[in-house]
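Re: weekly structure request thread

Next one in the queue (644 aa):
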Amino acid sequence: MLSVVTRHFMRQSANISPIMKAAEKTAAMLGRRQAQPGRMFAQQNSLANLPVPPLQQTLYKYLLALKPILSTEDYEATQAIVSEFGKPGGYGEKLQMGLILRSQKMENWLSDWWLDKAYLEFRSPVVMHVSPGVVFPRENYRGVEGQLDFASRLIAGVVDFKQLIDSNSLPVDYMSGQPLCMDQYYKILSSCRVPGVKKDSVVLYPPNKPDAPRHIIVAYNNHLFSLDVYDSNRKPLPLTELHSQLKRIVAESPFPAIPLNILTSEHRNVWGKIYKKMSKDKINRASFEEIKRSIFMVCLDKPVYSEETDHIENFAHHCAKQALYGGGSTANSCNRWFDKTLQFIVGADGDIGLQYEHCTAEGPPITALIDHSLHYAHNTPLDSRQTLSIERSAPKRLEFNLDRATLEVIDDAKCNIDSLGNDVQICCFSFEPFGKDLPKSQRISPDAFIQLAIQLAFFKIYGHSTATYESASLRKYKFGRTDTIRSATIESDSFVRIMMDQTKKPSEKAHQMRKAIQAHRENTNAAINGDAIDRHLLGLKLVAIEQGTNVPDIFMDTSYQTSVHFRLSTSQVPAKHDVTMLFGPVVPDGYGICYNPQEDHINFGVTAFNTARETDSQKFGQKLAESLLDMQYVLSKVPPQAKL
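Done, posted below.
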């Protein structure tokens, strides 16, 4: 176990008309709605379109990224391929011109492509492979009554956040003093992924329509209920009314339903075919529509954890499984609808969390909603629980007609989710010796410091560097999503090697650490400013495909496959509350690593697959904690320097 780490998940804790035409054109696919003037979009006019980086710049950076992860022989062979691709008047320049022409016609040349290629055309299950889970601090209630009380407070908190979105009252997000695109906030509520036979789609139901959704979906005992959270005057229901309605749902569902919901965890083609067939039935079609139109979902989970039979330090692991995939078919995986954008999980043992389907938004808007909702849930005044005289609807159970073939696929899906759950290794822990205050006291970027520790941990286990993905926000551009910070650099590779050399002095190690951190900062700045390499290369490849020409040799090269085989897929998701996000690895022999730096500790979620003998999330967690302490020791031996 992690000797230097204590698990502690018990802790409480302006007019924008220029963008409207583009929003209308892509609304059907992306779920964008016309934004209205207000505080939330006060800076939207100032946002630039996503640029296309210079071709030679990207090719140069591509070779730099390859150097620490390739053999000398492979690197030299790839140099020749890259040189041929980038020569004047060559294939690369023709594709570059095609990408520039696309960018001149669109406010964001990447976003539509990225939605399709990264998400909607991805056919593996969204569980583990797409959707992150978020573990909240454990609440101090136990039992159904406390569960329903907190669930009602959490629902009210999310509805309160929705009011800010609907009225365009959210303050504009900023990064390094620059305003960010707020479009993603419109996609996290009243949205849903819809399965297709070959490609999925996304639907969004904007709040400015007369028939805007007033309901959420509540899952209990595998049953799904539609519950209005607004009264007939579109005023949010008071807490006592929410509590009363949730109590009614529980009373009406004493026995588990046939777990149709588990089909949402299946391979997308399988689920797409069943969905298409089931939708021919008007009862099924109406229930599907109710789910898609719902504002969000709340999963009231049955208790599956016992402190009497399991050690309390394993509670974090239990919560992580519930958030990531529901814990299995005999736990709460059947009490989910994995296509829904937001599923808040409220367990009977104080275990709270969230799972979100990733195609609509990145982590920051989600964490903003989490922080607001938890604060609301913990600080709602008691007098707001008074019952008012309102016109309301009773919860409506969603019905489905299932044939024998569908029942057989449900049984298969239960086996598949159990196999997937058994395959994932989860190491969810809090590193407590220090938090982001330590690197900040040394004038070092906490994110760069943690990323370097991840590189050191990997090197300690495997003896070499590997392709590493860190998510970088492109939200300084209109409709921006993400690009890649490549954390494995020439400088980081030199650092991990010198750290393992016992003959080197702390001053030498600290010097190389700072060089590696500076390189990471430069890569980060390049990525958030649209000058990273991965999305640009993808764009060039997709231009070739759309033009019907041969895919260039640069993308057929084994070195390119190595460069995108991200054994380390990482993301910083900072939140004010003491939460931990986690997601599955993106390659079979890789790790998924998410972290939330707090002032005096750092929360980590590390995942790996059991089917890969060479990976071990627990071992990686141990080496990561050890690496952080090694770096702390080195810094303690040298004085602080300039800010990095």
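The CA atoms of residues 68 and 490 lie 5 Å apart. Residues 1-37 have pLDDT under 50 and may be disordered.
Next request, please.
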